[in-house]
């Protein structure tokens, strides 16, 4: 039998079903396996075993050209018996009769038709397959071929053979990977890194923010009704059972599924739990989790990287940064940790003087919707806040309104102090987690109730304006914008001033040490609650019921161990800083020194030694009355304007008053994390450089896009900004340059690009000026310091005398240096002196001008001009989330950033088309044989079509009835009128900025290539203008937009915002288009690289 023909198996009669089983299997195997390569199974007692052992004879070491697929024998159903008799059950288990066999080979199409078949196959691939955002996704080769054959059969054309289709896949998607899965007899070949467009449309939603909300909509809707009903039970019955249900709701309904639960659909999982919560709450009780065994350091680093990536994918940037930068580890659950926690929560001092509730109090104003929503935004950006924010979203309609109403009723009940007494210890308690500090000791983290935090934030927002006025000017830690910076400037100026008489500078620390365990205590945990409540009763009586219940004896749970909370403020309570400041305020008022400055529990006083000693005695005495104890071993004192003899006498006096007090040395002179002396600047900046190197090493475990996002957002200069604003670090240019050198190494490692001097300089510019937004410390230090000095000048004047301020010339020196650098720039207006960007912008514009002057090649000129155009760098602002389709793979991100900075992308080589490709790789962007051009076009149209659907505008791609005489059609058509009663027709095009035909124009005028392409499209489809609104969407490979196309995208984004309520929809849509262009650019450039054979033989081992 010829192996190239397919002979259908002969269908036996039902009577011979068992007797001729082996014969039929022989015919099935012969017809599919072919006469020359098949080994017919011999007679055997167990036919199934014999069948499973059937193999295909082939040459050694060569895998089959196509994956094998299970083929079931085509047995007809048994004929039903006559009459009413039911047919008997068959004894044959057909599920075990699967024959593994390759697809029957096909003859290749004739040479005359091969070109048309190849072009048709290429179009089919580009329309139905796209590059996957998730590298783990893959398409089975057998599945691809089956769908292609169905397409050809429906069209009535002859399909290409498998090998030719494989070559076209490689051309269309250069980054695709092939792999072999399964063992012998069950081999499957896959194409990795690509996915079906239809599947991608199901996985991705219509816009970036809408994706996050739409993916959780049904899940939240189920949560909404269950939570609303639970809250309403509390407000109507106020029973213990209702409060218990409210406390247990998140543990039962929002529990994280375990692997053993085998959850496939998270929405279905939550909906099922919410339904069972309303009918049978016992069935939703989560099972206790088994403690995880300890893991190695390497495993911890890998887990850290995975968790950071997951946080970024969910949009929790703050959580990702905390995970990446934290050095704390969870303390072991043992007796030592428990003893430390007990010591940090001491009993209340006796005798206690708790006040009675006030008699006649004006009730507080009802909670408004905007106050509630503002408090929700404040709550830590974790899952709890996101769930609440989603549940109260207007997209949930009446259900959201009902939950808002129920929530306000619950908070009103709490505000009145009507929580049952037996519920208060648990409801106002918390669960404890003990962290090991890097410097020793433990840090207890209390995770309190979200309802308490919500109401506490509303209360603190209400009292803050009055509180700031009451505490000013000495307390800088509550409601004072720039309070820490003002304190650092005031302390630095006073410490470095020329004093004609001896002056003492004292830093006090309220972290007493528990002598038995040698544990550092927390000042917030030390204050007396009876003193606190007496102050609240007098100052804010309308909030006394709520605050009194919060600070009644409560319970903190460390595992299953209950720890009583009888003293101090609870950590993490939004009201904590305000309450602590109220307690210590009488101490501030009793001190009479030239400098009297407090930032919560960090106290600093300075004046003559006698007054400072008097202030020290006052703090010790009055502090003990409110429960605070000064830790003299942590206090520091320095002397200014004293002779060595006087300094020795003063030191002895302070040693007697505060045994164990430490001297303030020039190298360690810091306050609130800011250096006070030049020597301290050197020490602090050196430590910052070491920390940057440490954090940069952790970025290596992340993907390039995620690592860059975090590097720019926090790890690099942003973590240095407070230091740069508070200290004159601009005078230490050599040290700042060392910091920048470390930053450059981290950026080169992240991008996998070598940065030339010009590329490194360009990277420091903001994205809107053509850079990457990675600011350099050398450039940022001076504007930071000048802006901070001006923005805090009034606060500093209220802390220290004016003559001391005017004697400081540091600000004047910085402004003179700025004038020297900002050649031709004017000083910012009086109202903008405190704006950092007002001082930075002139320097950045000079840097941009310098780069343009250095550019001599037309390509560099065009690149720099294009980079500063609106939205050209929108892809740099996207959140790197695979779920949202905005995460670029490592190689794609490298090529995209190299294109922007003008870095080398590849080694010079010859393109498959025969042209030479330079190290910049620009040829691939214009090469007509490049596969990236097609994928870029398909991806951009995909984004536009889905965006229109998100705006509730149905549309189709390649609409019929709009074709030209040559058969070419526009890319899309809206099915309903877009404007003026006409449907919208769009056609996307992307012109190459660096193409020789455009380069002369784009090197002089940005966007010239896009405008040329825009005009060409208008001429091409002018015949449509009498029936439709035709808009060409023209872009350039550098991200520059033609104006009309950009206006259309912005209009679509505005309609999405109106439909969904997401105000950032327009920005998200532009970012998605920008990402699609960059992906196409990468595919086009990498498509010029020479193909090579992969090491597939290893899969045969």
From TrEMBL:
Q: Which GO terms describe its molecular function?
A: DNA binding
Query: Which intervals hold domain RFX-type winged-helix?
Result: 121-195
Q: Mind telling me which InterPro entries this protein's record contains?
A: DNA-bd_RFX, RT_dom, WH-like_DNA-bd_sf, WH_DNA-bd_sf
Where is composition skewed (Polar residues) in this entry?
A: 12-21
UniProt domain Reverse transcriptase: residue ranges: 437-638
Biological processes, Gene Ontology terms: regulation of DNA-templated transcription
Tell me the segments the record calls region Disordered.
Answer: 1-22, 29-48, 55-117, 277-302
Pfam families xref list: RFX_DNA_binding, RVT_1
Which PANTHER family does the protein's record reference? PROTEIN, PUTATIVE-RELATED
| Designated name of the protein | RFX-like transcription factor daf-19
- Native source species: Folsomia candida (Springtail)
């Amino acid at each position: 039998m010829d192996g190239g023909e397919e002979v259908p198996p002969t269908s036996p009669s039902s009577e011979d079903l068992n007797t001729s089983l082996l014969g039929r299997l022989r015919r099935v195997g012969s017809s599919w396996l072919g006469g020359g390569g098949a080994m017919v199974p011999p007679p055997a007692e167990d036919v199934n075993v014999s069948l499973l052992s059937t193999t295909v004879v082939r040459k050694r070491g060569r895998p089959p050209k196509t994956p094998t697929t299970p083929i079931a024998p085509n047995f007809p159903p048994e004929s039903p018996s006559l009459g009413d008799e039911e047919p008997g059950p068959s004894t044959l288990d057909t599920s075990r009769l699967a024959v593994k066999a390759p697809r029957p080979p096909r003859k290749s199409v004739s040479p005359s038709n091969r070109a048309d078949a190849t072009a048709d196959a290429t179009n089919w691939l580009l329309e139905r397959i796209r590059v996957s955002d998730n590298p783990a996704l893959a398409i089975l080769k057998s599945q691809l071929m089956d769908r292609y054959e169905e397409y050809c059969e429906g069209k009535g054309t002859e399909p290409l053979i498998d090998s030719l289709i494989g070559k076209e896949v490689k051309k269309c998607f250069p980054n695709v990977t092939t792999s072999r899965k399964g063992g012998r007899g069950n081999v499957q070949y896959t194409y990795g890194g690509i996915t079906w467009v239809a599947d991608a449309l199901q996985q991705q939603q219509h816009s970036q923010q809408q994706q996050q909300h739409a993916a959780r909509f049904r899940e939240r809707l189920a949560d909404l009704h269950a939570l609303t009903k639970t809250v309403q039970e509390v407000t109507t019955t106020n029973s213990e059972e209702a409060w218990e249900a409210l406390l247990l709701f998140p543990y039962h309904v929002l529990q994280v599924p375990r692997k053993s639960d085998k959850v496939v659909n998270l929405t279905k999982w939550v909906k099922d739990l919410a339904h069972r919560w309303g009918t049978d709450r016992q069935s939703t009780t989560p099972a206790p989790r088994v403690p995880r065994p300890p893991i190695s350091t390497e495993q911890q680093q890998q887990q850290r990287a995975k968790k950071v990536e997951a946080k970024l994918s969910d949009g929790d940037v703050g959580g990702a940064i905390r995970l990446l930068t934290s050095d704390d580890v969870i303390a072991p659950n043992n007796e030592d940790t428990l003893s430390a926690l007990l010591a940090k929560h001491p009993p209340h001092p006796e005798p206690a003087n708790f006040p009675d509730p006030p008699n006649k109090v004006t009730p507080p104003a009802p909670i408004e919707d905007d106050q509630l929503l503002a408090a929700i935004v404040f709550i830590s950006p974790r899952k709890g806040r996101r769930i609440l924010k989603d549940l109260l979203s207007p997209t949930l309609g009446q259900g959201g309104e009902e939950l808002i109403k129920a929530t306000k009723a619950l908070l009103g009940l709490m505000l009145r102090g009507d929580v049952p007494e037996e519920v208060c210890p648990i409801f106002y308690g918390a669960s404890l987690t003990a962290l090991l500090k890097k410097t020793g000791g433990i840090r207890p983290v209390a995770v309190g109730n979200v309802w308490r935090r919500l109401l506490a934030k509303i209360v603190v927002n209400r009292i803050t304006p009055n509180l700031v006025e009451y505490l000013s000017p000495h307390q800088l830690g509550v409601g004072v914008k720039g309070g820490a910076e003002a304190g650092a400037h005031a302390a630095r100026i006073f410490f470095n001033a020329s004093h004609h008489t001896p002056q003492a500078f004292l830093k006090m620390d309220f972290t007493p040490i528990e002598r038995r365990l040698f544990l550092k205590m927390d000042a917030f945990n030390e204050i007396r609650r009876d003193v606190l409540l007496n102050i609240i009763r007098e100052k804010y009586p309308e909030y006394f019921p709520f605050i009194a219940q919060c600070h009644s004896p409560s319970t903190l749970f460390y595992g299953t161990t209950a720890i009583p909370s009888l003293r101090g403020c609870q950590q993490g309570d939004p009201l904590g800083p305000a309450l602590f400041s109220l307690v210590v305020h009488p101490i501030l008022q009793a001190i009479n020194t030239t400098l009297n400055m407090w930032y919560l529990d960090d106290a600093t006083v300075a004046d003559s030694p006698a007054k400072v000693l008097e202030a020290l005695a006052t703090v010790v005495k009055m502090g003990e009355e409110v429960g605070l104890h000064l830790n003299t071993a942590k206090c520091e004192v320095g002397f200014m304007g004293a002779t060595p003899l006087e300094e020795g006498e003063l030191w002895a006096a302070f040693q007697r008053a505060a045994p164990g007090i430490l001297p303030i040395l020039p190298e360690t002179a810091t306050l609130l994390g800011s250096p006070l002396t030049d020597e301290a600047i050197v020490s602090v900046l050196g430590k910052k450089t070491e920390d940057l190197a440490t954090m940069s090493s952790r970025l290596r475990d992340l993907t390039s896009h995620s690592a860059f996002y975090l590097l720019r957002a926090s790890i690099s200069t942003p973590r240095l900004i407070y230091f740069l604003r508070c200290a004159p670090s601009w005078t230490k240019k050599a040290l700042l340059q060392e910091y920048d050198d470390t930053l450059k190494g981290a950026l080169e490692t992240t991008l996998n690009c070598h940065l030339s001097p010009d590329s490194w300089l360009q990277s420091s510019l903001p994205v809107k000026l053509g850079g990457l937004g990675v600011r350099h410390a050398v450039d940022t230090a001076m504007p930071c310091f000048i802006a901070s000095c001006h923005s805090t000048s009034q606060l500093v004047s209220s802390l220290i005398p004016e003559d001391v301020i005017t004697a400081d010339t540091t600000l004047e020196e910085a402004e003179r240096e700025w004038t020297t650098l900002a050649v031709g720039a004017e000083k910012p207006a009086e109202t903008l002196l405190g704006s950092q960007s007002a001082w930075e912008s002139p320097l950045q514009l000079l840097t941009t001008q310098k780069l343009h002057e250095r550019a001599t090649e037309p390509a560099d000129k065009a690149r720099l001009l294009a980079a500063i155009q609106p939205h050209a760098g929108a892809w740099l602002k996207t959140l790197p989330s695979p779920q949202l389709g905005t995460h670029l793979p490592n190689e794609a991100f490298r090529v995209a950033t190299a294109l922007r900075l003008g870095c080398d992308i590849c080694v010079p080589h010859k393109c498959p088309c025969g042209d030479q490709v330079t190290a910049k790789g620009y040829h691939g962007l214009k090469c007509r044989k490049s596969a990236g051009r097609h994928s870029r076009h398909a991806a951009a149209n995909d984004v536009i079509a889905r965006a229109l659907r998100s705006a509730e505008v149905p549309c189709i791609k390649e609409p019929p009835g709009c074709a030209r005489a040559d058969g070419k059609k526009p890319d899309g058509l809206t099915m309903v009128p877009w404007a003026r009663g006409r449907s919208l027709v769009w056609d996307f095009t992307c012109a190459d900025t660096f193409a020789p035909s455009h380069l002369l124009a784009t090197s002089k005028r940005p966007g010239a290539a896009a405008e040329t392409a825009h005009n060409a499209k208008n001429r091409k489809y002018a015949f449509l203008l009498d029936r439709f609104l035709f808009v060409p969407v023209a872009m350039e490979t550098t991200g520059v937009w033609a104006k009309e196309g950009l206006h259309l995208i912005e209009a679509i984004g505005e309609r999405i915002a109106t439909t969904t309520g997401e105000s950032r929809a327009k920005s998200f849509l532009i970012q998605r288009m920008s990402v699609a262009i960059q992906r196409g650019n990468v595919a086009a450039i990498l498509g010029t690289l020479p193909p090579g054979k992969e090491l597939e033989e290893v899969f045969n081992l």
